[in-house]
Design brief:
The structure is a homodimer of 279-residue chains. With 279 residues, chain A is of the alpha/beta class. In chain A, 53% of the residues lie in helices and 12% in strands. Chain A folds into two domains: 170 residues, NAD(P)-binding Rossmann-like Domain (Rossmann fold), CATH 3.40.50.720; 100 residues, 6-phosphogluconate dehydrogenase C-terminal like domain (6-phosphogluconate dehydrogenase C-terminal fold). The first copy, chain A, is globular and about 65 Å long.
Chain lengths: 279, 279
C-alpha cells in the first residue's frame, strides 16, 4: 500500500489519515471532500498531504490510489461506489466506514466484486468535523468488517493497518451487522430522539422541568442532539431491523404500563438488572 | 429546632444528618432504621448521635423531636405517618424526602393537618446506603416542597436549614410535582428498564453485542441496574401520570417507526434538537 485516497475528510476520515501517519505509513494520502473547509482543516492537521478539488483531480487521485476509503454517510458511500466502480483496476481496494452494511455489501457484489471490504469502526464523538480528528480515535474501539470473499493481499494489508490503529477487528456478515447495530445503536438513538421530542412538546424551555431533571434525564436525552443529517441515511438503509427493535420496545413499554402495580413490573426490573451492561 | 429524628438512615437520611452538622446544627439527632447495619453505619459517620432501636426508644425519640424526617421509600413513609400521627403535638414538624407527593400530601391533610411539609430533594447516587452519605449531597440540588398551608415557624426554620445545605428550594403543588417527576424521572427509568430488558431477551451476555455497544448503549441502559425495590413504591403511588408518559412515548415511537423513510422523521429530530437539555 503506497497511496490512499480518503473520500470524506470529516472526523472519521481525517482521523484515519492521522492514524495512518502515527502507525508509520509513509505513502501518499490524498483527501476529497464536498466541503472546502473540511478539506483545508484536514490538510492543516496533516491528516492528508494533498487535497483533490476538481473532478479531474478526483479521478486522478482515485486512479492512482491503492486503497480508496469512503468516509461519508451511507447514501454518499453508495453514490461514490457507483461513480468509481467503472474505473477500478486490479489490486485496488475500496473500503468504507458506513454505519450500515447490507446495502453497501449488495452494491459491492454488484458493482465491484472482489474489490471491496466493507468496514465500520465503532468510534466517534458528539460532534463531527476534521477539527476534532485524532490519531488515537480508534484505539481500543471495535472495527467491524463484512468480508465478501477470500481476503486479497491488499485487504490483509488494510486490516493490518487497522490493527496498528489500536482497533480490535470483528468480522460479521452484513445482515448480522445491521441487526445488532439496530439494537445497540439505532434503537437507543431513536428512543433518545423520541423522548426529547415528547419532552419538547410537553415542556419546551420550562424552568421547573429543567430544575427538576437530573443526571438521568440528561443521559437519556443526550443523543437527542444528534442531527437528522447523520441519521437519515441509517434509517433509510436499515429500515426493517430498526422497525423491529422499535416495535419490540413499544410492546415492552405497553406491558410495563399495564403492569405498574403488578409483579410483572418486578420481572422486567430483574431482567434489566441481569443485563447489567459491562464496558 | 433543638432535636431531629431521622427515620431511615440510608443515603439520603444519613446525608441530612451530616448536612445539619456541617451547617452548624448543635441539637440532638436521633436515627431510626429497620436495618441495624445502616443505623450503625450512620452513627459511625456521626450522621446521628444516637440510634433508637426498640419500639419504646422509637416512641421516646419521636415524642421529643422538633422535626421528624421520614427518609424511607414512599410506602414506608405512608406507614410511618399512620404510626406517628396520633402522638404528634403542637410545634412538631413532619417532613419527608419521598419521590412522589400526591399520596403523601393526602395522608398529611387527613392524618396531621397543619403539621406536615412534604419534601423531595433531587439528589442521590447510583447506589444507596449510609456508607455513601455526604454532607455535600444536596449542594446545588433542587429541593422540592409541597406546602399544604401557611408556613409555620418550624417549617420556616426547616426550610432555612435546607437552604444552608446548599439546596435550591422550589415549591410545587403535589399534582404538578408528580406529573413533572413522571416525565423527567419516572419515564426515563421505565424506558431504561424496558430497553435493558428487551436487550437481555435478545442477546443475554453475547460477546458480539458487548463488543459493538458503545457509550450510547451504556448511557441509555445505565438506569437498567436500578432495583425494583426502589421503584415499586413510585410506580404504585404515581401510576396514572407514569402511564400517561409511557403511552405518549409509545405513540411517538410508533410514529417514528412508521416514518423511518419520510420527512416526518426529520421533524422529530428537529424537535429533539430544540429540546437540548441544559442541566
Amino acid at each position: 500500500m503506497n497511496s490512499v485516497v480518503i473520500i470524506g475528510t470529516g472526523l472519521i476520515g481525517a482521523s484515519i489519515g492521522l492514524a495512518l501517519r502515527e502507525a508509520g505509513f509513509a505513502g501518499a494520502i490524498v483527501g476529497i471532500d464536498a466541503s472546502g473547509d473540511e478539506l483545508k482543516a484536514a490538510q492543516e492537521l496533516h491528516a492528508i498531504d494533498t487535497a483533490a478539488r476538481s473532478p479531474e483531480e478526483h479521478r486522478a487521485a482515485i486512479a492512482s490510489a491503492d486503497v480508496i476509503v469512503l468516509a461519508v454517510p451511507v447514501l454518499g458511500i453508495l453514490h461514490w461506489m457507483q461513480q468509481i466502480a467503472p474505473t477500478l483496476r486490479d489490486g485496488q481496494l475500496v473500503t468504507d466506514v458506513g454505519s450500515t452494511k447490507v446495502k453497501i455489501a449488495e452494491a459491492a457484489q454488484t458493482l465491484m466484486p472482489g474489490r471491496c471490504l466493507p468496514g465500520h469502526p465503532m468510534a466517534g464523538k458528539e460532534s463531527g468535523g476534521a477539527a476534532l480528528a485524532e490519531a488515537g480515535l480508534f484505539r481500543g474501539a471495535t472495527w467491524l468488517f463484512t468480508p465478501l470473499h477470500e481476503f486479497t493481499a491488499i485487504e490483509i494489508e488494510w486490516r493490518g493497518w487497522v490493527t496498528k490503529f489500536g482497533a480490535n477487528i470483528l468480522d460479521l456478515p452484513a445482515e448480522q451487522h445491521d441487526r445488532i447495530c439496530a439494537w445497540v445503536s439505532h434503537m437507543p438513538q431513536m428512543v433518545a430522539t423520541a423522548m426529547s421530542s415528547v419532552l419538547e412538546d410537553e415542556f419546551g424551555d420550562s424552568a421547573e422541568m429543567r430544575a427538576i431533571g437530573g443526571r438521568a434525564l440528561r443521559e437519556m436525552t443526550r443523543l437527542g442532539s444528534s442531527p437528522y443529517s447523520m441519521w437519515r441515511d441509517i434509517a433509510h438503509t436499515n429500515e426493517t431491523p430498526i422497525a423491529e427493535t422499535l416495535h419490540t420496545l413499544e410492546q415492552r413499554l405497553q406491558h410495563m404500563r399495564e403492569n405498574l402495580k403488578t409483579a410483572q413490573l418486578r420481572d422486567e426490573f430483574q431482567k434489566a438488572n441481569a443485563f447489567r451492561f459491562r464496558t
